[in-house]
Amino acid sequence: MTRLKLKLFVLSFLVESCICPQVVKLDRFTFDPDDPSLFVSESAILDQDFNRSYISGHVVLTRELNDLMITSSMDIIRSHRPEMRLYKVTLNFCSILNNAYKNKFVKTLYHSFAAFLNTRPKCPLKANFNYSFERAYVDERLIPSLIPDCTYRLKMSFQLKSKQLAHMQLDGRYMSKSGP
Ligand SMILES: *[C@@H]1O[C@H](CO)[C@@H](O)[C@H](O)[C@H]1NC(C)=O
Ligand SMILES: *[C@@H]1O[C@H](CO)[C@@H](O)[C@H](O)[C@H]1NC(C)=O
């Protein structure tokens, strides 16, 4: 197996082994253009409700985009322990949007997020189109049971032919209610 396949396999396994319920809180949500000439406008909004955090946002691009790659990593921090990287993967973002990955983890993420979008984006992404999502939240059932109570940092960055276009970051806390 290639390293990427192995990582995706491990992620799929984690999804399979999920139990509930848990609480996922977001404390910070940012989206930052690295190439400002690409964006007409963009936003990243975090709303806190009683037990849940919601994110909304939009992007309007100045030009059409194809062949996008996404690099995503997740680190968790527990008290008095070294920081731990759960994964770091680079995937073809257009293949994700076309739902072309057979991997269960990637498909699950796609379907859970696609529901919050105003449209199902396809590559090439259009210029001057408002891609937005409204009050998206993490389905707690997607969180692997093996993840301990922790704070987490989820990073995503978008590249075109290794040029960095934009990056986003989500910082939050994860608590398993049923845990000790
Ligand atoms: C929030 O959590 C409480 C206690 O676990 C639960 O009773 C309530 O239904 C939850 N509310 C929402 C909106 O999830
Ligand atoms: C895009 O849509 C979002 C969500 O409906 C809205 O808040 C935002 O103002 C719109 N931006 C532009 C530039 O049309």
H/E series: HEEEEEHHEEE
| Straight-line N-to-C gap | 37 Å
Classified by CATH, the class is: Mainly Beta
User: Uncertain regions: pLDDT < 50 for 5+ in a row?
Assistant: 16-20
List the quaternary state of the chains.
Answer: single chain
Helical fraction: 10-25%
Q: How many distinct domains? A: 1
Count of helix runs: 3
Q: Compute the CA-based radius of gyration.
A: 16 Å
CATH topology: Ganglioside M2 Activator Protein, Chain: A
Overall average residue pLDDT: 86
**Ligands, deduplicated:** 2-acetamido-2-deoxy-beta-D-glucopyranose
Report the sheet-strand fraction: over 45%
Give the biggest beta sheet. Answer: 5 strands, antiparallel
* Strand order within the widest beta sheet: 1-8-7-4-5
SSE-based structural type: alpha+beta
- Gross morphology: globular
CATH architecture: Distorted Sandwich
- Let me know the number of strands: 8
Signal peptide: 1-20
Keywords: Signal
InterPro entries: DUF1091 (IPR010512)
Description:
With 180 residues, the chain is of the alpha+beta class. It has one domain (2-176): Distorted Sandwich (Ganglioside M2 Activator Protein, Chain: A). Helices cover 17% and strands 46% of the residues. The protein has a 5-stranded antiparallel β-sheet with strand order 1-8-7-4-5. Strand 4 and strand 5 (84-92) form a beta hairpin. The model is unreliable at 16-20 (pLDDT under 50). The structure holds 2-acetamido-2-deoxy-beta-D-glucopyranose (2 copies). One 2-acetamido-2-deoxy-beta-D-glucopyranose (NAG) binds at residues 50-51.
